[in-house]
Amino acid sequence: MQEKLQFRETINPVRKLAMKEERIxxxxxxxxxxxxxxxxxxxxxxxxxxxxxxxxxxADEIYSVQVHLYGSLAKTGKGHGTDIAVMLGLSGYDPxxxxxxxxxxxxxxxxxxxxxQLHGDLKIPFSPETDIVFHNxxxxxxHPNGLIFKAVTKSQTSIEETYYSTGGGFVVCGESDDTALLxxxxxxxxxxxxxxxxxxxxxTGKPIWEIVLENEKxxxxxxxxxxxxxxxxxxxxxxxxxGCQTKxxxxxxxxxxxxxxxxxxxxLNGKQCAGCDDWIDxxxxxxxxxxxxxxxxxxxxLAVNEENASFSRVVTAPTNGAAGVIPAVLQFYLTFCGGTxxxxxxxxxxxxxxxxxFKKGATISAAMGxxxxxxxxxxxxxxxxxxxxxxxxxxxxxxxxxxxxxxxxGMTCDPVGGLVxxxxxxxxxxxxIKAITASQLAMQSNPSNAKVSLDNVVKTMxxxxxxxxNRYKETSEAGLAVNIPISLSEC
Length: 491
Hints:
This protein has helices spanning about 1-20, 25-30, 40-55, 70-75, 75-80, 80-90, 105-115, 130, 195-205, 210-215, 220-245, 260-265, 275-285, 290-310, 325-335, 340-360, 365-370, 375-390, 395-405, 425-445, 455-465, 480-485, and strands spanning about 30-35, 60-70, 115-120, 120-125, 130-135, 145-155, 160-165, 170-175, 315. The chain is of the alpha+beta class. The strands form 3 sheets. The protein has a 5-stranded mixed beta sheet. A hairpin with a 2-residue loop joins β7 (about 160-165) and β8. α11 crosses α16 and α12 (about 260-265) runs antiparallel to α14.
């Protein structure tokens, strides 16, 4: 096992150096899906869908299917719902469109009948207990989030495919690089790092969001880009609003009490709202005091990640575990700073590009880089987006992103019980607050005097990820995960 882990650590710097011409859309960074994890839930779900496609015309011949989970997917897969994700994917459901209220019923039917319906029609024998295998002591060499699908036909022919969930819902088939499943396009403003982005700004005079928009128009026309980004925001805002109205205990066995709804009611002094717009009006009526505003930022972030932990629909930003930071900061701006739909559009374009720079130069996978790769990246994205809509320059946007990440460097991923709850949910509140602070600090600074560039901090984050002990990379083998009894209730 040690040899495999060492190989994994040495192969990735080579892969990073080779990752030129990686063209990522903001819609690759912002993906609508179901919680609790983009790498452990959404990615394996997508892998299951890809495996079904690989069967092509052989689907009717399939007699049995097994799923083998390795590395971090095995160690924390139960807590992250990896087994649930692959079953739903094999059953033909899509995380963007399926009715989340039906998940429990579908899983109960699979367990009771010990069968699964591939593509929703071909019924084959399947036992979740024996046909989903958790290889807790093994890790595949390319990436810690590896899984293998094995099918056997009625004529005893074997079909096998290996996939890697590389973070943020991105999936790699085999040991190719992360770009293998992305369309190859020629962009008017190719960007591999922050220096490229700044260079295009200086050459054209365009703000960051406008440069990104020109690139996005290679994939979609401007009207569609706008519509789809506003739909992304609609899903984000729905997760905030629903999370602020929903009380109860989070699933998974830790007995974590949902807090957003109670905080919401406390801040509103018990006032009831008729809908999301009315709710926002009630919040604004409470004033703009520092403590009041700070509490709402925390409430917004808690709400999203409590929804995420409940297998509800959220948006990767850039991951599910960090899904609350950007919605919280954007909702803060819209609620307390008078933002508009145009600000939403510009904020998300700017934030999305910062996320892609981190993915290209480092990682957005906690299993590869610890929590700095999730909360740290989301905080940097939010800081840049907030600076953009607050009137900051391109240089200040990049400075804000750098400040936000600089103060997340080295953050480990140590989920208690393998669940995206402790410390993940509260970390979203801290990431949101740091993003706002980073933006304000950058807006009051002269970037030409900065000693650390965004590219410096991306490089440092990647080096830190390589140096980090694997026990702190989403394995639940160290940190809070081993010091907090599983039976302990939310503190």
